[in-house]
Amino acid sequence: MNRADGGARRARCPRCDRPVLRQLVGRRAALDVTADAAPMPAAAAQTLREPNRLTWCLRERSCSPDLRWLGPGHPADCPHPHVIDHQCTTPAAARPAAPRRTRKPPPVPAGQLTL
Ligand SMILES: [Zn+2]
Ligand SMILES: [Zn+2]
Fold it and tell me: pTM, whole model, 2 decimals?
């Protein structure tokens, strides 16, 4: 079995914990795609699209969903739902348990500490 053709796998974003679809899309230069799991109409996906945020054609197969590259052969009035690249709103540095802020130094002028 060729794992690369196994369709998308449902996962959760390690950062924001939202449901996403992960798949290697493409035959030669496969792209490691992480897309929002929520499907939307093709037209709606198109309006959200940005230069660095691609949309994908979502084909539900019997075993698993399959993300398709929107190539030249993709119809503009595609009847399939589309998904869009997951754009994480959680910065990479943030941890689920936010570290406590370091205590602020007391707002006392240095001169008064010598009392
Ligand atoms: Zn499509
Ligand atoms: Zn995320």
Answer: 0.71
DSSP annotation string for 78-104: --S-EEEB----S-TT--SSPPPPPPP
Top-confidence residue, 43 or 112: 43
35 in Cβ contact with 49 (< 8 Å)? no
Tens digits of per-residue pLDDT, 2-16? Answer: 444 679 999 999 999
Between the CA of 21 and the centroid of ligand 1 the distance, in Å, is: 16
Closest by Cα among 71, 90, 67, 91 to 80: 67
Report the separation in Å between the CA atom of 84 and the middle of ligand 1, taken as the mean of its atom positions.
11
How far away, in angstroms, is 87 Cα from ligand 2 center? 6
| Closest ligand to residue 18's CA | 2
